[in-house]
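Changelog entry: the HTH-type transcriptional regulator YofA record was regenerated in this release. Current contents:
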Amino acid sequence: MLDTKEIQCFVACAQTGSFSKAAEKLFTTQSSVSKIVKTMEEKTGSLLFERMAKGIRMTPEAEKMYPYAISVLENLKQIQMLDEKRTADILSVSCNPSSWFADHFVKFYEQKQGEELHYHVHSADCREIVERVRKRTDELGFVYIMKNQAAAFQYYVTRNYLEFTPLKETAATIYYGGGCSDSGNSLDFSKLKLIQRFPDEFSPDNYWNIVDSNGRTASDAEIVITTNSDYIMERLLQSGNLANISGGYLSGKPQQEISKGKTCLASDTRILFGYVKRKGEELSKPANDFLRFLISSLSC
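Regenerated structure tokens:
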């Protein structure tokens, strides 16, 4: 039977495609990783990784094992979370990458510093957020979705025994970077170089129906960088010649200037911000407190 250490090693090797990178991830040595993999192959009676000139590759046998290994590690994480709950309340939430959400999570944390409360906060796309709430990894998931996708998203979450509650509607906004030449009031997508997040079918990164004054759509713009990092996004917008299409700041003003350029409303494209929770279940006190805090902040 495989132990937890072996399963963790197997997953790290599969995800990194390298014994040395897996060793770095696990804070151990390459020789130790190689020995563990060899032991696993002896136990399972199967070759798990093909050794190549540059890195390793899973064999068909390993590919069959991989989803089960991931499930084991996720279940162990859930057990650890239950153990933590014996000593402190936990707020587990996920969200689309959002400067507004980050700013207000920090404010909530500062308010609650005197309480015995722990936090699990995960940034993800809409589909992963739905899956995390469905699996009870997170209690609440906060998403931005295109308004024209609201019916499809509601159907999707309902099929997963969840419910989606919209909290606020905002307009799609173009944030021009500090060095962006097209930062005036006229919008010309053919001149625009974009930095965008990885989209899914519900996310606000699907702005291709926006039309400029010349009849060009957002698909005429050049996507130079695709990233899931808010830090990279904000650094490049502060000084670069890139622009970003995303939702407007939901309330108040950002704590830090996201972009040195101007913002321009992108036609009448609308975005809904809201939350996903398990259908028919009451929220824990930390989750309920956080939700009420965000709702209050949205009205400011």
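The chain has two domains: 4-84, 89-300.
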